[in-house]
Amino acid sequence: DKDTKKKADPISMVTGEELLLLDDATLLGLYPFAFQRQYRTTAVEINSVFGYGWSHSLQHHFLFNDEDNTIIWTDHENLINTLDLPSKNMPISANKLAKAAVWLSEKENEYLFTAACLNGWVMHVNRLSDNHGQVTAFSQNKQKLLVHYDPERQLPVKLENPAGASLLFYYIETEQGDRLSEIRLARHITIAGSEPQCLIRYAYDEQGQLSEVINPVNEVERYEYRSDFVFTKRQLAGGTEFYWEWIGEGKSVRALRQWSNIPNTEINFKWDAASGTSEAIYADGSKEIFVHDKQTARLLKTVSASGTTTTRHYGQDGELIAEIDSAGHVTEFDYDDELNCTLMRFPDGQVVTNRYNRGLLMERTHYSADRLEIRREKWRYDYDGNLITYIDPMKLETNYRWSENGSLSAVIYPDNTSERYTFNALGQLLEYQNTSGEVMYYRYNALGQLIFESTTDPNSTNNIDAVQATRWVWDDIGRLVAVHWPDGTSRKFSYNPYGSVTKEIDEKQRVTHFEYHPNTPFIKRIYYPDNSYTQYEYNNIHCKISDIINHNGDRYHIDYTPTGKIQSERLFDGRRIFWEYDVNDQIIKRTEYGDSGRQETALVTQYERDIHGRLTARTLPDGQKIAYRYNGFGQLLEVDDGQWPLVWQYDKCGRLIQEHQGFSSQYFDYDAVGRLYRMRMPDGNILAYHYHGDNVSQIDLNGQPLSTHRWQQGKEIDRTLGRFGELNWRNQFDSMGRLLHQRITVGDNIIKPIERHYQYNQVGELTQITDTYKGIKNFTHDLNGRLASANHKPYNHKQLPDELSFKGYHEQFIYDGANNLLSSDAPLDALKGDKQSNTASSTQVSANRLKIQGDRHYEYDEYGNVIKELRGKRQHTEHQFKWDCQHRLIEFKKIRHYRDNDFHQAVETVHTYTYDAFGRRISKTDKQTGDKTL
User: Fold this and answer.
1) Distance CA 335, CA 321 (A)
2) Using CA atoms, how far apart are residues 637 and 368, in angstroms rounded to an integer?
C-alpha cells in the first residue's frame, strides 16, 4: 500500500516484491478519477485483463459469506480485506487495521465500500446471486460515476460520468483470456470534437502478458517476464531499462538485485525473515536498513545510509503512537475510536489537539511549548462534508459556498469581500471573479486541458478567435506545445518521451536546445541561441547534479552524503566548501577554503540546534556568536549578534506585529482579512492602508491622505500623491501587462506633463523609453536575451553644449560563453566614424573572475572578493575593498592619484560599513568626517 517503504523501481522493503503503480487514464469530473494499473509479484498467480500479476482500478473481487457473516474483498491492489457483513442491526462495519469500511446502501443488495486505497471514493457494489459482488459505481460528494459491463463477458466497458465524459474500454481475445487493448475518452455529442480519443493502447506477448503500453504519440513502454510471470525487464519509452535478479519462484520471489542502463543505479537487497530486517545496498557501498514487525509488516525502525535512525511504536489498532529520532527526541500521537489523530506532542513541549466529527476536523488547538499561549482554529461543514466556515485564531470567519453539483461557488472573507467561482459539471473552472469584481474566463479542450484565458467573455461574441486571450495548445498526451499570447506572439516547445523539453522556440524564433544523457531524463547540455552551452553530469547514486561545466570549461563539482545531502562543493574558481551534519542529518558545520586551499585561512562556521532542529546559535569564523531564540510556537523571536539585536512579536494568527532592530521599532496591524492595515514607522509616523479588493486604494500618513490608487486586472493605472492631488501618475499597459505609457502631472500644470512611452520587442524585452524631459533611450539585446547596448540621446535645449559627448551616451555589453559581462562604455564622440571599442580582445576572465576590462584592472582575494580595482590613464584611480568572514564589504577606500613628472599626491576617501545578523547593511561611516548614516 501507499505506506509501504519502497526502493528502486520500486521494491517493497517488507516483502521484497515489485510494486509498480501507474496512472494510465483520467476521467474528467469535479473529482477526477484516475484509472491505475498495478503490477506486484505476489499476484503473479492471479490472472487479469493485463495478464498475471497485474490489476487495475476497476478490478475488485468480493465474496459474501452468510455462514460466518463476512465479506472477503480483494481490492485493485490485490490486497485482501476481511470485513464483517453489515446487517440492519449493524449497518456498518470497519477494519481499522486495513483502513477499510462497508455499510448498507438504501438500495437492496447494494453495499458501499471505502478504504484508503480508494483515495476518497465510495465504491458501490451489488451482491450477486452467487454471493460474489460487482462494482456498479464510484461516488464522491455529489458526483457519481457509473460502471457499465459487457453482458456476455461481464467486463467493464464504460466508466461514465453522467456530467459529460466516459472512459471506454476495448478488449481482445487471447488464448489466456480477454485482454484490455485500448482506453478512449468520450465526450457528449454536443461538445465539438467529441469523437472518442485514444488515451492508451496495450499489446501482449505469447503468454498473454502485457508487453507494450503505447501512448497516442506512439511512445512505447515495454515489459519482459520469466515463465512464472515475474518481471525481468522494464523499458521506459525514453530508453531507460530496469533489470531484476530474484530469489524464489512465483509469488514468493524476493528481489536480490536491481540495476539499469543508467550508471550508479544498481541496488542489492538482503532479507532476514527471522528478524524482519531488510537492507538496500547501493552502488557506492552505502546501505539503508529497515526493520518491520513480522506479523503486521509495520515499519519499526529505519537506519539511513548516513546512520540516522528513526524508531516507531504502534498501538493495538496499528496506529502510530510514538516516533523517536536519532537523538532520542520523541514525538507522541493519540487517536480517537475512529483512529483520527487527536493529539500530537512534540519534543519541545508543543502540543496540538484535534477534535473530529464524522471524520471531519472540527477544531484544532495549538498549545505553545511553555503552555502560556493557545491558538485555536475551528471548521464547520455542510451535510455533504463541504467546508462552509473557517474560524481563525482571532475568531474571524471565512465562509464558503457550494453549488448544487458540489463545486465551490464563493469564498466570503471576514470583511464581506468575496471571490466567486463558476465550474461546469466536469469540475472545470469557467469564470473567476476576484475581490475587486474583475472576471477571468477559461475554456478547455476535449481532454480537459486549459486552452483559453481572457478577461473577455467568449460567449459575448460570435467569433471567439477575435477575442484577445492567452491560448494554449497541447499534444495528444497532454504536453504543452505552444502558447499564443494576446499580442499575437507565440512560444513553442518540443519534448522527448520523458516529457522533458528538447527544444524551445521563443517569440523571436530564437531556439534553445536541451540535450539529455542517453536513455535518461537527465539533462546533459543546454544550447542557447548564440550556441553557447552549459553542461551537466550526474556521477552519484542519487542521480543528482554532480558537475556543472560552463562554456569556458570551468567546472562546479558537488559531492553528496550517502543520504543525498551536499557534502562538498568545488566552485568554478577552485574554492571548496565542506558541510558536516549531526545525527539527524542537519547541518552543524560549514568549512570554506579559498583557492589556496590553506587550512590556516579556512573559514569555519558552526551551528547549534534545539531538539526541533531549529538553529539556536551560529559561531562565525571570526569567533562571533549569534544566538537565535523562538517563541512557544517555533517562530523566530530574537536574533542577538551582540551588536544589533533583532526582536519580533506575533499575533494569535502568527502574523508579525512588532519588529525591533537596534534602537528602532516598527509596529504592524492587520485588517479582518489579514492584510497590512496600519504600520508605525521607526520615526513615529503612522501609515494606514485602505483596500479595494486585494489592492491598496489609499494610504494615509498620520491620518491625512498621502496617496490614492486605482487598479485594473492587478495593474496600477492611476496614483495620486498629496492631500490635494498635487502629483498624479497615470499608467497604461498592453495586453501582456507591460507598461506602455506613463503620464505624470504636477498640480494644475497640464501643459507640460512628464510623459514616458515604452516599447518592447516580441519577447517582452524593453527596446525604447521616450521621456519628454530626459530624451530617448534605446536598448538592444543579444540572442540570449541579455542587454547588448544602451543608447541615451537627450533632447536638444539651449543649455546643451555643442560637444558630442554631451549629446548622449552609448554603452555596449559583450558576454563570454559563461555569461560573464565583458562591457565597454563610451560617450558618443568616442564612437565617431563608427569606431567602436572592442573589449573582448582586451578582457581577461579566469574562472568567472574578470581581471582586465578596458582600462580597469582587478585583483581578488582567495575567496573571489574584489580587493583592488585600478582604472584610468596611468591608473590614476584606485579602489580598495575589505571584506569580513561572511564576504560582506566592511571598508571601501577610494584613492585618487595625481601625478606630474616627479610630483605625486594621493587623496583618500574611506567609508566603513556594518551589518545586522541577516547581512543587511545597517550603517555607513565616512572615516574622514565621522558622518554616519543608519
Assistant:
1) 8
2) 13
Contact call for residues 451 and 443 (beta carbons, < 8 A): yes
Q: Which of 226, 275, 261 is nearest to 247 (CA)?
A: 226
Nearest 5°: phi and psi at 428? -95, 130
Peptide bond connecting 10 to the previous residue in cis, omega within 30 degrees of 0? yes
Using an 8 Å Cβ cutoff, are 82 and 68 in contact? Answer: no
Per-residue pLDDT at 830? 47
Mean per-residue pLDDT, 533-557: 96
SS (H, E, C) 708-738: EEEEECCEEEEEEECCCCCEEEEEEECCCCC
CATH, range 855-934:
2.40.128.720
* pLDDT for residue 549 is more than 50: yes
In the chain, where the domains are located: 565-633, 855-934
Phi, psi of 76 (to 5 degrees): -70, -10
* Cα distances (angstroms) measured from residue 889 to each of 354, 586, 595, 829, 880: 50, 29, 19, 36, 11
- Return the residue matching grid coordinates 492587478: 714
Say what percent of the chain tops pLDDT 70. 95
Single-letter code of the amino acid located at 851: K
Neighbour-count burial for 718-741, b at 16+ CB within 10 Å, e otherwise: ebbbeeeeeebbbbebeeeeebee
Q: How far is CA 799 from the centre of its chain?
A: 55
Does residue 412 have a pLDDT over 50? Answer: yes
Supply the DSSP string of 287-356, one letter for each residue: EEEEEE-TTT--EEEEE-TTS-EEEEEE-TTS-EEEEE-TT--EEEEEE-TT--EEEEE-TTS-EEEEEE
C-alpha cell at 472: 494554449
Q: What is the DSSP string of 880-897?
A: EEEE-TTS-EEEEEEEEE
Q: What is the pLDDT of residues 661-714, one digit of tens each?
A: 998 999 999 999 999 999 999 999 999 999 999 999 999 999 999 999 999 999
Closest by Cα among 476, 460, 478 to 468: 460
Asked whether the predicted pLDDT for residue 444 surpasses 80, the reply is yes
